[in-house]
Amino acid sequence: MRITQHWLNATIINIIDRTPTVREFELVPEDAGPQTYAPGAHLQVRLPIAGGEPQTRSYSLIGLPNTRCYRIAVKRMDAGRGGSLHMWQLTTGDRLVISEPQNHFLLSFDAPEYLLIAGGIGVTPLVAMADALGAHRTRTGVSVRMVYGARRSDQGDEFAYADDLHRALGTCLQRVNADAGERIDFAAEFARLHPEAQVYCCGPVPMLDAIKEAWIAARRPTQNLRFETFGNSGRLASQPFTVRVPRHNLEIEVAANVSLLDALEVAGVEVLYDCRRGECGLCAMDILSVDGELDHRDVFLSEQEKRSASRLCACVSRATGSITLDSAFRAIT
């Protein structure tokens, strides 16, 4: 049960392959032009996965707003939940159901220094931030750097939007090629920063976990580290699992390509949610028992909460085997 949502029909007007695995879609909402938005914003897209109930996917908006279209990019993930494969089957002229722009990853302009960190497809929300901060640097002289980790080999270059980022940041953009064995040294990057610098990062959950660990070790202000995840990555491959909800007397099978939140909603279990990206925490549910292994894929719960196996975020997290969850439902007596 989302707090508020306004869905719009949109038409795909152009498709561009940015890398061998990253495809960009230009979308125009019907009956209205694109709305303005701040850097860090995203769209939610409703997709009819495998002929079943529509499922929601979130995609960051690429670049600063324009009056022509929205731009989103989708990485092809053959082992994912089906959203990327569905998107890659679409062609120019096809229609989608989208939300209005939403933002849980706002950029502020009051820091003395900025560092952007991207991992793979996590570059997408940072393109607009790089554009905005590049202009901000020209006006104020504030320091802005970006470290971008991706893959480049004979099989292809996965540094999507590198040209756009170079135009915005010039030599302050550093690329780190994983195929060449290069790694981002987060501790060293943070040691270079002004004490009140802000860091904005997006990428797979293991990378964000490493960033948070290095940030805490550096004893930097928690509020100055800001991040977003694209939600599909985890420690374990997605596989079917069972969830029991005693308050509803339900046992639900969650398919490998369906989120726990979607499976609960289809079964009639109302769960409060908002971001669907493992960031806001509204969909966190109490865990009563686990017979298997949890795969927390959120960036909301603390490491201590994850280790305690007391709660999970239903929108992105998964499990192996079976889990038993409590819900907010209380019978009226």
Describe it for me?
The chain is of the alpha/beta class and 333 residues long. The protein has 3 domains: 7-99, Elongation Factor Tu (Ef-tu), domain 3 (Beta Barrel), CATH 2.40.30; 113-229, 3-Layer(aba) Sandwich (Rossmann fold), CATH 3.40.50.80; 241-325, Beta-grasp domain (Ubiquitin-like (UB roll), Roll), CATH 3.10.20. 19% of the residues lie in helices and 34% in strands. The chain has 7 helices and 18 strands. The strands form 4 sheets. Strands 4-3-6-1-2-5 form a 6-stranded antiparallel beta sheet. Strands 11-8-7-12-13 form a 5-stranded parallel beta sheet, with helices on both faces. Strand 7, helix 2 (124-140) and strand 8 (143-150) form a beta-alpha-beta unit. Helix 2 packs parallel to helix 3. It is globular and about 60 Å long. The two termini are 24 Å apart.
